């Protein structure tokens, strides 16, 4: 799975089809949405919808603008340089806590094993990390995963020797033996596990154990949601058409996604196995109030508390203010 931070190039905008209309849109006016994003296997349905012109029947044109630095996407959205964005939910929590009125309108995917705590074979449980050197990047998806794993075992980061390290540097540190465990993402996870013929390290805990904690989402500013709801609905319908095509035409879809990721079709398929694109029928679960990590309330609290403790946000945000479920509610009725 190619990480958001592993993007090696910034692409030019990808044009989508135009014309015709969805009943909510004007019959002779083509709506246009500028969508900021990073390259990520979980965004496959967007790439498929682009390539196959699946927005056309909904009277919509989407201009994808790719950013090499995920940290620049939120400022682009805040400055109205783009109309919407694909973000990780922790980015939304941080932005809303600082006063931005961003709204998640649709969950896209969540990490499903693509992020993991890899450890020496002799470490059999999270509790056995106590007092040991664990490498991870602060305020990143890997830290949120580790924090949740520790909390679930009655521990905190105070119980380990925290080593600040970029996720992409974890394999090298593990190879040198300087870490007992590291938290990273694919393809780094597989690289670590393969060291020493697979005899040195193993996956101790992964995002499969906390489904929904690391979630990618579709986001718009509150004012744009109120003003251009029909265009947002059209975008979501185009995305869902792309997701359906991926299910019915996996090989063709892998080739499309591979072209955007800059890898082979086989590699794209492997990367997509580390994420889970939830179908429309399951999207509503994210908006339901629950402590489960598949709910924005559950994952949001974990993320927000971690950010508050580290001084990254001034106060805990109202989780309910981070999303608007009207579009998914309407489509699932």
From TrEMBL:
<dbReference type="Pfam" id="PF09084">
    <property type="entry name" value="NMT1"/>
</dbReference>
<keyword id="KW-0732">Signal</keyword>
<dbReference type="InterPro" id="IPR015168">
    <property type="entry name" value="SsuA/THI5"/>
</dbReference>
<feature type="signal peptide">
    <location>
        <begin position="1"/>
        <end position="29"/>
    </location>
</feature>
<feature type="domain" description="SsuA/THI5-like">
    <location>
        <begin position="44"/>
        <end position="252"/>
    </location>
</feature>
<protein>
    <submittedName>
        <fullName>Nitrate ABC transporter substrate-binding protein</fullName>
    </submittedName>
</protein>
<comment type="similarity">
    <text>Belongs to the bacterial solute-binding protein SsuA/TauA family.</text>
</comment>
<dbReference type="GO" id="GO:0042597">
    <property type="term" value="C:periplasmic space"/>
</dbReference>
